[in-house]
Design goal:
167 residues; 0% strand; mainly alpha; 6 helices; 50% helix
């Protein structure tokens, strides 16, 4: 299961920018509304054959970048079952970075990508966990607000202890 979808990517940018990055450079730019329809899985019957071809190329580029971002995040030890908005955001940022390519790279995209890499490195080194905690099982004991429990290790240097109670 992918960490981010086409819709996640579109939610974190705008259709015009996404189309400019994803439509192959040798094709005419389709209307930005067409990319929204294509991402939502709607019918493209109202668009010309050239626009449909450009949209297919854009969707292919988007899917490739999302798959590459997914592979990157998996390489940092995050299981593919983790589905959080943070992971979707990180994956979307990486996919947008890949869509920019070297010739269209902006400082903002590069800084955002470096932030994602710093976050993934922090996860890999254990300074940060991007994996949410497991919910309690029905068999786990219920924690009471008024329960206090003290545990200690055994005495280190033997001997006896004296407990004095003054009533």
């Amino acid at each position: 299961m992918p960490f981010a979808t086409r819709a996640d990517l579109l939610a974190r940018t705008n259709a015009r920018r996404l189309a400019q990055l994803a439509v192959p450079a040798d094709m005419a730019m389709p209307p930005e509304a067409a990319l929204r329809v294509a991402i939502d899985g709607g019918s493209l019957a109202g668009y010309s054959a050239d626009e449909q071809t450009a949209l297919a190329g854009a969707l292919d580029a988007i899917d490739t970048c999302l798959a590459d971002a997914n592979a990157l995040i998996l390489s940092y030890g995050i299981p593919d079952t983790v589905q959080t908005t943070l992971i979707a955001r990180l994956s979307s940022i990486v996919a947008l970075y890949y869509l920019h390519g070297a010739e269209r790279m902006t400082d903002d995209a590069d800084k955002a990508y470096q932030g994602v890499m710093d976050t993934l490195n922090a996860h890999a080194t254990g300074r940060l966990s991007l994996i949410p905690p497991e919910p309690p099982l029905p068999t786990d004991p219920v924690v009471s607000d008024d329960l206090v429990q003290f545990e200690s290790s055994a005495r280190r240097y033997g001997g006896t202890s004296t407990v004095v109670e003054d009533w």
